[in-house]
Design a protein that fits this description.
- It holds the Pfam family Na_K-ATPase.
- One of its GO terms (biological process) is intracellular potassium ion homeostasis.
- This is the non-catalytic component of the active enzyme, which catalyzes the hydrolysis of ATP coupled with the exchange of Na(+) and K(+) ions across the plasma membrane.
- This protein has 2 domains: about 60 residues; about 210 residues, Na, k-atpase alpha subunit (Immunoglobulin-like), CATH 2.60.40.1660.
- It has about 290 residues and is α+β, with helices and mostly antiparallel strands.
- Helices cover about 25% and strands about 20% of the residues.
- The model has no long low-confidence stretch (mean pLDDT about 90).
- It binds 2-acetamido-2-deoxy-beta-D-glucopyranose (5 copies).
Amino acid sequence: MSGSKQEEDRKGSNQWREFFWNPRTHELLGRTATSWGLILLFYLFFYLFLAGMFALTMYIMLLTLDDYKPTWQDRLETPGMMIRPKGDQLEISFSVSDTESWDGFVSNLNNFLSPYNDSFQVQTNDNCPPDQYFIQEDSGEVRNNPKRSCQFNRTTLEDCSGLLDRFYGYSRGQPCILIKLNRVIGMLPGKDRQSPYVTCGAKREDSDKIGPVVYFPPNGTFNLMYYPYYGKKAQVNYTQPLVAVKFLNASLNTDINIECKINSNTLEAGSERDKFAGRVSFKLRINEK
Ligand SMILES: *[C@@H]1O[C@H](CO)[C@@H](O)[C@H](O)[C@H]1NC(C)=O
Ligand SMILES: *[C@@H]1O[C@H](CO)[C@@H](O)[C@H](O)[C@H]1NC(C)=O
Ligand SMILES: *[C@@H]1O[C@H](CO)[C@@H](O)[C@H](O)[C@H]1NC(C)=O
Ligand SMILES: *[C@@H]1O[C@H](CO)[C@@H](O)[C@H](O)[C@H]1NC(C)=O
Ligand SMILES: *[C@@H]1O[C@H](CO)[C@@H](O)[C@H](O)[C@H]1NC(C)=O
């Protein structure tokens, strides 16, 4: 019994050895050298072909890419908003009597607004007719680049320009906060000559603390003439429009949670999916000492 089993084992291992290398037929793993050569050759050409296909597709893709505008862009979503000065975690907190607590905000605003100087805007940008889009489309294949941009003069921010009050109200407990709408190429933020505008309010529990606010330019509008935006490369001197909010009599020594949002007849308000669309929240705290 055990002898036949051993024999069977030996036979099996012989079979296996023969499959690996058969000296009679000169087959390695059941194939002759020619057969192996053909297979390797086949795979070589197969992979060369795949690599060629990949290179060709890539080449055609790159040919269709355009330096000036994105080839693929998602459905235009409502963009987010940002505030200036930039504080830690969207918090503007300072003491009126402590110069050092707000001079960082003031120098941040000074730097940010420097390219908005009227003298600079006159040199670089056009004085556009307001309340209408500044359309500069390409005509077919003929590029209309570089495209011009519209002036946004620092003086339109009036009390928040840093020119009439070089401390932007921070030394008097009436701080200015600048708001910008993130750039989206091709976005048309209003129809029927209605520019989108910003409104700011306090979160419910703070509604009695925010006090009156005033907006610059009047009504807090982002004028339609600053749109559509054609991208950094096409519109080299683009100056992003701003809205300034000045808090005239906000409560002192308390946190005030504020939300500013865009109002537009084409952009949808922030959905549940994207809470940051078209709005920005920040904390304001003005201490007396
Ligand atoms: C803009 O104006 C401010 C105040 O007049 C000045 O300090 C700043 O240097 C100017 N910036 C440019 C770029 O002209
Ligand atoms: C910006 O200021 C310049 C110089 O003061 C003025 O000529 C121009 O009309 C102003 N532009 C706008 C859009 O207000
Ligand atoms: C951009 O601004 C420069 C001056 O700073 C001006 O010479 C140039 O013509 C402007 N380009 C466009 C496309 O507006
Ligand atoms: C501000 O809004 C009011 C009411 O909508 C309008 O009558 C007024 O003309 C607007 N002012 C400016 C400067 O757009
Ligand atoms: C500012 O607000 C306080 C209450 O927070 C109020 O008592 C005061 O009269 C207000 N001042 C002005 C000038 O409105």
